[in-house]
Amino acid sequence: MIRWNVKMHNDSDSSDDAHIIDLVLGGNVNAFETLLLRYADHVLRIVRKHVNYEAVEETAHEVFIRAFQSLRSFRADGNFRQWLSSIAVRTCYDYWRKAYRSREIAMSQISETHHEWLEEILSDRSGQSFEEKGAQEEAREVLDWALERLPPGDRMVLELVYLEGLRSKEAAELLGWSVANVKVRSFRARKKLQKLLSGLINDQEGTL
Amino acid sequence: MKFTKNFQENLNRTLRAAYHEKEKGEVGEQWQEKVMHHVRGIRHVLSKKSFFEQFGDALWRFAPVACALILILGVCIVKFHMIPDYAMAKIVANDPMEYGLLQSLLM
Fold first, then answer.
1. For residue B5, which of A35, A110, B33, B49 sits 20 to 30 Å off, Cα-Cα?
2. End-to-end CA distance of chain A
3. How high is the ipTM of this complex?
4. Interface probe, candidates A72, A195, A208, chain B, greatest B C-beta count within 10 A
């Protein structure tokens, strides 16, 4: 599991980042490419998990542009990786808010193959590990189906706390929310997800 | 089919695995170049100053003009014997004849 906490971050990288940021702020814009190369994979990993496949490149692009534009606000003693993660998460959140506002979301539908996949999970007969089952296309599609039906805030908090496994405090820092708000929303979002999934099972029962 | 606790737990673990599976993928070769091209195009945003910094800069631009005005006024006061308000008030207070401003300037 990828955790974006400070512990994993190397101190020498941190001071090096601060030096590169100084160079960029001093007018050497090309030095920003070092930060881009260093953190592109990290940002892309975050973005891929939160937005649709076709919007990944555009959203990750937006993350680096926002980071560049607000580079002056970065504190030299801060953790650049953490700061960038926060920008990435908030950019993904903005992506969903914008998409929901303009109603550009194409709601996916559940087919017979998804029901079969759920049947396999229920019976637990396949002998596959959770990782193997999760790697199946049906798993991602069922997950996307459920997440699409949640409001952007619920979706983000559910992904960070419930699926990513971050603590409420970490999720609150990334989203810029209060810890209490994260706790309340993650609880409600989990209930909604459970209701959606149980509804899916009941639908399946009805069709059988 | 019942939504049992065991099933829910299995589904949760599978969905978590599916979520982490999403992080795998590639971006186009040109992606980083596009980002840097965009960054170079907006390099001016880094030199953008805050309102107070801009206000300060604008204020200093008027400093030579202000100095010149002070010098001109100083010369005028000396040359035309202009009396400051304090001296004027003193004259009015001490003089029983009640000098007017015009009279004091004409003297």
1. A110
2. 38
3. 0.78
4. A72
